[in-house]
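Note to self: user wants both folds in one dump. Writing first protein now.
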Amino acid sequence: MKQIDTKPEIVYQIAMSQPESHLFEVTLQVSSWESEFLDLKMPVWTPGSYLVREYSKHLQNLVAFSHKNENLIINKLSKNYWRIDTKNINEVTVKYQIFAHELSVRTNHLDSTHGYFNPAALCFYIVGKQNYPYQIKINPPHSDWQISTPLVSVDGTFIAEDFDTLVDSPFEIGKHQIYEFQVLGKKHQLAVWGTGNIEPQKLIKDIEKLIEVEAKIFGGLPYDRYLFILHLAATGGGGLEHKYSCTLNYPRFGFRDRDKYNRFLQLVAHEFFHLWNVKRIRPIALEKFDYEQENYTPSLWFSEGTTSYYDLIIPHRAGIYDTNNLLENLSKEITKYLGTPGRLVQPVSESSFDAWIKLYRQDANSANSQISYYLKGELVSFLLDLLIRNKWDNERSLDDVMLQMWEQFGKSETGFTPNQLQQIIENVASIELKDFFAKYIDGTQELPFNEYLAPFGLHLIADPDPSIPYLGITVKTENNREIIKYVAANSPAQQVGIDPGDELLAINNFKVTSEQLTDRLKDFSAGDKINVFVFHQDELRSYWVTLDAPRPSRYQVVLKEDADILQKRNLARWLGTNRSKP
């Protein structure tokens, strides 16, 4: 006789009886259990944030008992793995606490004003039962605290169809403000925790514009309801994408200044674009998440970098900022890229693969040896967009790549391989891109900006300050000490042995601070020798440094004065508007 597999019921209750303690009180109840052991594991990372964060380090006071209130034996098998002895036990209750005092989009935060959590950082999964439904019940500490989450509530219980869905569903609990609006017939909510100079109705109108522009690229919105969670804090900034929501952190007074406001809308555009690109259009390594370890892929340059390119151009398409702003923002990105020596060391595909050990673990040599897959991926995507547009007289673009990726992989949530991604880009462009990928994605050759800008009447120019000879150090004041934080590879400073961590004291016998350094260097010319005094591990040292020629401090994308009619037409069609001349 075939044994029937009884489906266990998995129910979480999340309480926060003393929010000032920053402790979430978690109860996991498992019914209809039919195994000698109950194996529990806590994720070590959360999708969208590619770093092992060891969430279990915040766990304390773990206990388990039966329906008869008998204590059960718990064995810890690894850093995030617990085994509970459940022989002849079919109902198990597990209780523990999670310390939550990190206000970020990828962790948990609990205080007297609210509770916020990402389930990956709070909840176990039952080994072998990840595909079963998980129920969540919230017990707020006060009756006037409300709950915002993308999960659907049934009689006060939130239902996740499986553990992946649970992980993808953040919770905001508290007295936050909720604003409801509709776009293209779909319901949207903006939940705002904290106070600041935000103007909700103005912001909502601009968010609506972003949603409409992005929906047009993909042919509609793949959801019935979407939630924006916004945390207003003293500092910080960032976002984390989910299928049906996103969490955004931003400085509370960052909404009046136009540049800061535009940067926030870029953040919104970025995280919202992710509901297609990476949440549904996923590299094959992320098709099925392994929550216990790194999930390696060389394609984050597309998942994150291409998304960064779109967060640059979507606000322009939406009419939020004009062409001047777009080209200025683009110029800033190129300046950052060309000011990073690591671009000539690390391919962007390798940067993607090594995200887990490099991008979020910066050290004194990172800028010399690494390049961000966000940054270079953004600029590679920009060049691909221009390449396709130029080839097809703007009848095709990177938008067509995104739509094909959506149709072929996103709708079915089938992971794509690097070769499949390249093939779709080649199909849209109708040219072979083997050399392009070898040089600029799997290689470290300089990106040929002007070659790709020329058909659009644009030109990249360097803007060096001829009065500042090149030394090659970055200095920051820390506790009244002038600390050298960075020494550029092959710079005059590096060549004589000046190190990151040295304390800068003087140049030519006169004290110099981080604020004074640039002005002091203006007193010299390329080829001059200066005597630099530092403390190296508390030992006084002096170095004779020969200054080099000034380096560009800024690059600008500008309209060529002799641009012809065809180039101007190409530019207008890339921009999609003639609101402002660059």
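First done. Writing the second protein, which came from a different request thread.
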Amino acid sequence: MSRLKSMVLWKSILLTTLCALAIFGLWWWGLVHSVETQGQARAEGSLAQVQQIITREFLRAEETGTAFGLWWTREEGRLDGPGSLQSVIPFLEKGAIITNLILSREDGDSACVVRKDGAWNLVLFKGGRNPRRYLVQQGRWVPGPIDGREVYEARERHWYRFGAAQTAPAWTPEAYRYYTSTVAGFTFTVPVRNARGALVGVVGVDVSLEELTHLIWENRPTPGSRMIATDPAGRLLVPPRLPGMLDQGTRFRNQLAALSPGPRGDLLMGTVAAPPGEGLTFLDAGKSYVSASGTYATKGEPRMNLHMAIPTEDLFPGQRRFAVFTFLLALAAVLGVAWTMLDLHQRVVRPMSQLAKSATSSPGDSAEAMDFDSDIWELQRVGEKLRLAGRADRERERLLHQVEHSQRVDSVGMLAPGIVHDVNNQLTMVLGQITICQTLLEAHPELQPHLHAAEGATIKCAEVLRALMDYSRPDLGRREQLSLNVVVQEAAALLRRVLGRAVRIETELAPDLPLLFGEPVKLQQVLVNLGLNARDAMPDGGLLLLRTCRAGDGACLEVKDGGCGMSEEVKQRVFEPFFTTKEAGKGTGLGLSMVANIVAAHGGQIQVESEPGTGTRFRIEFPPSLRKRSGLAGEVADLESTGA
């Protein structure tokens, strides 16, 4: 058997160690959480940096288009030869994502500056045909090879029609595939008009998605980062740098392909819809990523959604191992603390709780409540002392209860005579006044029944007061031979008026009952008290059965209701004075106690049978009258016929 002091000592040491480990685990978790927060901030910062680079390049494209629009307006839309376009070259060298610069007139003449195989080419068209090609050498345009089959009708192109309909420079609202080409991109258009406002031509600056893709790939924060760009419709503009995307033809096929979002609408967790991507996924399975998303738009168009995912291992190498270690450490600490607390509860807390419950239990509780299971020596000794103290306390409470009960009965006996005397004096005055009224109102026979009823009620009140006196100081009173059936009939008639229509009263009277020797008023009081209790037990109404039968040489009275019934604890105390289950102010606890006293005064016995939900039955057995007179059977018949 363990000692409490030694057990608590080593348990405290263990608990302190586990708490220290738990604190360390929480600290480490906070450190990892801080690292993750820093990773998120780094991802968002990298995304913002890429957005700035894209903004810079798109602004350069706009500046190029706007500058040449102003220049061409001053030139009144002339396209004489390569010399007039010599100033294009410096602008093209600055724009990293500019693919084409096109100046097209309304009459079909066009100048196309095209990036081909990494070199700039100038192609002049007259009426959309008769091409002349020039190449850049030492900062100047020099004639190049000519393909007479080349045709460029700008007025049939999407970008030209869009720009001609504008009143100011504008981007095409969404990416599109260039005419008869697999290349897709945006176009910045500048309409050129003369002094009269008539359209002379349109300047177009093409920004291809291919050049935008290389720009984003070159500015990834880490080699393993994945970044995509989509348009508002969810189409892929810039694919991530994957082994399957290194081929240019594959990139062209997947540009403007619809995406299938992943869980929670995350496009990076989704795939490229087949057939272009054939279910191509963007992120590696089993890897943890820190992601960030943002929206890019310049002057409202073009609008792109940027999504970036950086592998956690790229940001913080070894972070996964640290997280696993921290989780295992915290789990071990939690399990250790839980085991320690459970062991303390089983060996200390639960036995002490049982001891405390036993110490605060009422005297009527079973002594078995003191029993508990503990292997601690100190708790066993305390339990034994509490058992002895509990026995003494219960004995003291029992004696105090008996003394209190005696004092209550004595107080009722002391107060009852004075109260009854004073009330009887007043009732005597009432009876006198009623008698005077009967004499004065003899000429009014219609009032006599009311006066007789008042006189009867006054006499009944006096008899009730005498019953209270009998309870506190029983005496033989005025007893006579009576029929139990007559008493039941009179009480049933009274109860039907008192209990109301909700309670249905039925009687089953045996014809061969012997006469009793007792007081009719008191026996009626027994039935009235039992009837009132039955009504309280049947708030929704029900059946109250009054039954008489022979019990050997005596008579038996049964009162049965269909109410809520009583528990075993209530049955054991139902006849105790002042015991009641009713709410405060609705019961005195004297009714059934008075019933028991009246039955005992008549030499009878009372029993109660009841269970919760099955109703209650009171069985009262009376001895026969010992006074034998001639014509006994006739008297019984006369009494019952009179009662009927």
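Dump finished. Worth passing along: The CA atoms of residues 25 and 329 lie 6 Å apart.
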